[in-house]
# Entry
Amino acid sequence: MYTELNSILNTTPDSFTQGEFVLLSDRQSDASFLIHHFLSLYLRARCKVCFVGLVQSFNHYSAISQRLGVSLTQAKEKGQLVFLEGQKESLSVLIPQENDTGSQAMDFLRDPSVGLKSLYEFVRSAVSSNGEEGGDGSEEWGPPVLLVDDLSVLLSLGVSAGAVLDFSHYCRAIVCSQLQGNVVMLVRCDGEGEEDEGDDEGSERLMKGLTHQCSLTLHVQGLPTGYCRDIHGQVEVCWRRRRGDGQYTQKKLFQYKVHDKGASFFAPGTSSAVL
Amino acid sequence: MSSVGKPSAERSPFNNTSFQKKTRSKLISIPGTRPSVQNGQLLVSTGVTSLDYLLGGGLAVGTVLLIEEDRYDSYSRMILKYFLAEGVVCRHELYVAAAQDNPDDILQELPAPILDDVAMHKPAEQPRLSREPPDALDAMKIAWRYQNLPKVQTALASSSRFGHYYDVSKTMEPEIRQAAKCHRFYLPEHPTQSSPPHSTMLESYSALLKSLQEVINREGFDVAAPMSNSRNILRIGLHSLGSALWGDDLCCHDNPKNGRALTTFLYGLRALLRSSLSVAVVTLPSHLIQDRALMGSITRLCDNAIALESFKGSERETNPLYKDYHGLIHVRQVPHLNCLASKLPDHKDLAFKLKRKQFSIERLHLPPDLSDTVSRVSRGELAGATTAASACGSGSSGNKHLDF
# Structure
């Protein structure tokens, strides 16, 4: 949890807007440090968290969360966190074994044209099991939160952009609207920018579709002037709110630097290396 | 406490006191590895010392290094051979897969280690004073105030030594080579199943993945496998993945039919490596792949990615700017492992040079101008000479010094 980002977004573990769909995106840069912020934020806020980690192993997320002051293993034991380790699950599908023990969540790997129904079923059962847990005496958790590390991996695994958009829409419907929880999704994109608009390639289409759905975007880019050791890039924060009459959007630009145990955000040009 | 006096051998292995010495002795005991300074990951050397430095000390066990081949696959193949040769010297097990050349051919071409300190069984760290020439006697005399300045070092290297040096002009002796256990996967010899087990991946890739998993399970490289005394590292070298010989059409078509086969394979490969004591180097003919977005997703599915761009066959070969180098090296991706901040290299302009005993990666810089005259003057004289030659009739060569 980065406190500077919290003050920018006006959230704390005690009070945050419910029913938000947050999109983290990057272009030729790396936005994955932001997912750790949201993971530790919602765990501290005592939400019921469902994490779909498709990129890295559980140990990786756990080691980083440890540095940010949250223990994933404990949260998992307490039933607060449901963690899907995509890599491990995929192996039993990619290399078929006799005794098939993998869960159904990664079934789309068998035939990607079917879509992500199995993954959605996993998410649905994870986020809506909140009440049952409370029944048998264990702790009661707050609103459910779904975090997905890297939807674009699904594209690499052969799922079409349309199917991924369907999945995100279904997730938004159940988590944000029905259960008043939050959804955070990360999308990574490698296109050169708006110039190559011509070919509507998968990841571009996915990015546009998700930007349309979301209520808050954090878009990470490299510095336009090139690589710098003291400033790792810039984040464009864009709120889309419905307030009274019509929609209103607000944009803010910050520069950031990732440290060992967190990240700092500052207004453009006010890096401590410059001043 | 009653257990104080007991000898340590009698203690049960499950004592639950909180005062335990933090030991990672099991991992450290593998020869040819060392823990990383930043995140405690176990590292192995790539066989190229300056590449190790560039990757943050070495290749972390359980990760994939992607090498984008140069146009003739000469230097990328060289790095692959260095990687395998380092495995032979450190007594790691090898796994070589190729579709074009027989893996045996690749293994026969491994460069010979420079054996001044390799008595093979001795540890790699040794004071290497003997190699440093005693240059105090014939040193150039320089002003005293510059004497204590550190030497400018352009080649990238870390202070402590890790990995070995190799002589490219000689091949490794067969006895050394055969001491290492090596698994081979040569696609034309490999029987492929008639029915593809699932739809996104090609038969060749799924056969390779299956064979890899068999080796990892059989030879006990799995982390979850029961602890044995001697654990070892499996070094996996996959040559020219994605080329047409693997049955892939990434390189041949603008819109490849099975464009997601390679990415799915890499995803599976990474999942396999993360749960085992193995490390992979994959080379890929990226200059044949037209789709940059696809290349981006391939890069993101590997942990490290570097691209080689050799000057061979391009006009840069004769460019005086690049006369000291054999090509450029681009770092596409550095690993994020158990830490937020990744260690980016300080410099982005890097070039490589293949010397007989060393593949070195250096910061690209302009060569010093060592000509007798300053170039501006010589150009002026040259211009003067041509005008004098063109104005052949007038013949007043004296005004050569008076050109304004």
Q: What stands out?
A: The interface with chain A takes residues 39, 197-201, 206, 209-210, 213, 260, 263-264, 267-268, 270-272, 274-275, 292-293, 295-297, 299-301, 336-342, 344, 346, 348 of chain B (CB under 8 Å). Residues 1-15, 118-136, 377-399 of chain B have pLDDT under 50 and may be disordered.
